[in-house]
Amino acid sequence: MNTKPVYLSALLLISASLATAQDKSGTEVAQKPVLPYCPSLDVTSMDKSIDPCVNFYRYACGGWQSKNPIPSDQTSWSVYGKLYEDNLNFLHGILEQASSDNSHRDVVTEEVGDFYAACMDESLVEKRGISAVQSHLDAIAKLKSVQEMPQLIARLQLVFGRSILFAAGSTQDPDNSELVIAELDQGGLGLPDRDYYTKTDDKSKQTRERYLLHVQKIFELAGDRPETAKQNADTVMRMETALANASLTRVERRDPYKLKNKMAPSGLKELAPNFDWKTYYREAKYPDFEILNVDTPPFFKEVNARLTAEPIENWKTYLRFHVVDSASPYLSSAFVQENFDFYRNYLRGAKEQQPRWKRCVSYTNHNLDEALGQVYVAKVFSPELKQSTLNMVKRIEDAMALRIRQLDWMSPETKTQALTKLQGIRNKIGYPDKWRDYSSIKILRDDFAGNVQRAAEFETHRRINKIGKPVDHGEWEIPPPTVDAYYDPQMNDINFPAGVLQPPLLDAKMDDAPNYGDTGGTIGHELTHGFDDEGSQFDAKGNLKNWWTKEDRERFETRTKCIVDQYAQYVVVDDVHINSKLTLGEDVADLGGEILAYMAWKNATKDLSLHPIDGLTPEQRFFIGFAQWDCANERPEDLRVRAMTDPHSPAVYRINGVVANMPEFSQAFSCKQGQPMTKPAEKVCKVW
Ligand SMILES: [Zn+2]
User: Fold this and answer.
1) What confidence tens digit (pLDDT) does each residue in 109-149 have?
2) SS3 369
3) Distance 13 CA to ligand 1 centre (A)
4) How many whole angstroms from 346 Cα to the centroid of ligand 1?
5) What residues pair up with 180 in beta bridges, in sequence order?
6) In the prediction, which pLDDT does 32 show?
7) How far apart are CA 58 and CA 36, in angstroms?
8) Among the four 283, 302, 435, 671, which has the fewest Cβ within 10 Å?
9) pLDDT tens-digit series, residues 260-314
């Protein structure tokens, strides 16, 4: 549960988020460090020994890469990751203060402070061991038949906020975006993607072997003898593999028509009659509803078949693993260690566990996001910053309107529709107008795992309770301190939280060139998502409805194929290439965004006389500002996971792949035909 909207397109997959708190009297809690300043163009981050026409990314980011090795507790390291880390430090000071148990704290400070304090009480967490989830394990042990499962699964999904057996919640009606309906989706796996279970190459086989050991270890920690634990691990693997085989791939899921399967509750009963949906929905406290969307009907057919094929003992084994595995980060150290060993060390390459305070700040932010977010915003986001960002958004939107009018491949008919969609986009900048109230969550200073479960239950119910109600256009999917941004095609809105509008990404001390190259490009990126291969299938109101003529759509697809072919050539790690049908929407948005930012920047500065700075022309500084948004170092393990799960291309190609399609870049650096960063005119990909 707690699934993000299916079609939401973020700038990054790993959204990082953080926040802060304020004293009741209005006096700000003293914070440890302030957010450190980094400029949006840093010449010391460059490597001028590299020819920009040969490898622009290395030229712009080589210095950053040598100065910023990946810290041992990180799976990768980047400008975004570093800003997130700065946020963590900033919030750490605030939460340390907020957690001191005194009577002068306001409600919000008390909530976040006590949540953090409970997490930091490591000796109590250690003493409690597995007991924090014992009541759920007892309930599983008492199951006598498959018929009794729906009630328990509803309960487990609520408190673990994880798709145990399947995912469930609410979504906007694809045909009427103003209405929220119930939703069911595939899920139920322990590995990050269905492909891990189905691929037959050596590395995938090796990963499955290692996963089996992880599952076995979880059973041993839960009290099973090694032989039993091993058998149980085999059972879990077999059951998850059946679910994986019936799941859609990530590329298939980019087709919104594949996911649109609206039905009445009676249709669901026909699709999966072996599961008592009535009991399930009653137990999860859903409001009555007449219609739901089942994203992946074949998956639920398989669930239905497995329900009778597997004896109840196997289901109990499956559920037991998922409960303990989900809760592991919040239990005693042996569980925390095993969770780290498999998911962060083996799968993603991190060398050591993050210090506890870092995890506790993250958990607080993740579970009580808008409570912390309020105080963060008060400290870092001014009305002036909001206004200057809106001005930039306006300029990028104007550039997009001009660009649409100028397209030589699109008919006037489709252009009118595209312009209507562009005008319909809502711009959400900084933070929500109305803050979420968490006061109904019981937060205890001596029950960390319980706090996490109650917060998950609150969030899941919040999503469920939207069903049957009109859409709230003011809501955000990510908290204000998040260093990321997103476009949501069903809302037709772009969302820029305060966290992503900070130096070095948006830098009031710098001139327009690097700021447009960086944040201007990000704004253009999110706008372009409304018109990428997926977003372009939704209309101005956010409904899944075609607004293209047949010929224009075909011409659009020829153009996107140019991008698919270009990115398919790029190698991620070893022999793994970019799955460019998965990354298409992001690659299109990266290119479109930078073209729009360039146009908007030229327009914003047309009356100014710009001069070189640090020996770099304004145009060169625009492109270096662009590249420096994504300076990064990446571990091979993490790249491998992301090649399968992340719709974004690796950092180097998000820069080099874009500039290769921009003649403005070649001009700025006087690149010659035949050099790697230039393409012959007829090979340049242009979508928007
Ligand atoms: Zn994106």
Assistant:
1) 999 999 999 999 999 999 999 999 999 999 999 999 999 99
2) helix
3) 9
4) 27
5) 172
6) 44
7) 25
8) 435
9) 999 999 999 999 999 999 999 999 999 999 999 999 999 999 999 999 999 999 9
Q: 303 C-alpha vs ligand 1 centroid, how far in Å?
A: 33
Q: Please give the Cα distance from 68 to 651 (Å, whole number).
A: 15
Q: Two tokens at 210?
A: 């290692």
C-alpha of residue 584 to centroid of ligand 1, in Å: 10
Instruction: For residue 407, report the distance from its CA to the centre of ligand 1, in Å.
Output: 22
Ligand 1 centroid – CA 11 distance (Å): 4
Q: Ligand 1 centroid vs 658 CA: distance in angstroms?
A: 14
Which residues, including other chains, have CB under 8 Å from residue 359's CB and lie 6 or more apart? Answer: 119, 329
pTM of structure: 0.93
Asked if residues 404 and 410 have their Cβ atoms less than 8 Å apart, the reply is yes
Backbone φ, ψ for residue 679 (5° rounding): -125, 150
Residue 528, φ and ψ in degrees, nearest 5: -65, -30
Q: Which of 436, 357, 457 is nearest to 116 (CA)?
A: 357
Q: Residue 2: pLDDT above 80?
A: no
pLDDT per position as a tens digit, 379-407: 888 889 999 999 999 999 999 999 999 99
By the 10 Å C-beta count (0-12 exposed, 13-18 middle, 19+ buried), 464 is classed as buried
- Measured in Å, residue 425 CA sits from the centre of ligand 1 at 16
Per-residue model confidence (pLDDT) at position 12: 66
Alpha helices in 569-674 (DSSP H): 584-604, 618-627, 636-645, 651-659, 663-668
How far from chain centre, in Å, is Cα 223? Answer: 35
Q: How far is the CA of 648 from the centre of ligand 1 (A)?
A: 7
Cα–ligand 1 centroid distance for 87 (angstroms): 22
- Say if residues 489 and 538 touch (Cβ distance below 8 Å): yes
**Could you tell me the distance, in angstroms and rounded to a whole number, from the CA of residue 525 to the centre of ligand 1?**
6
Q: Is the peptide bond before 504 cis (omega within 30 degrees of 0)?
A: yes
* Ligand 1 center–CA 532 separation, angstroms: 10
Structure tokens at 184: 């069911």
Give the residue ranges of DSSP H helices in 383-486. 383-406, 412-424, 448-464
- From ligand 1's centre to the CA of 401, what distance in Å? 20
Question: CA nearest 174: which of 260, 235, 53, 301?
Answer: 260
Q: How many angstroms does the Cα of residue 583 sit away from the middle of ligand 1?
A: 9
Q: If we measure between CA atoms, which residue out of 164, 159, 170, 167 comes closest to residue 457?
A: 159
How many Å lie between the centroid of ligand 1 and the Cα of residue 589?
Answer: 6
Q: What is the pLDDT of residue 34?
A: 67
For residue 27, pLDDT over 60 is answered with no
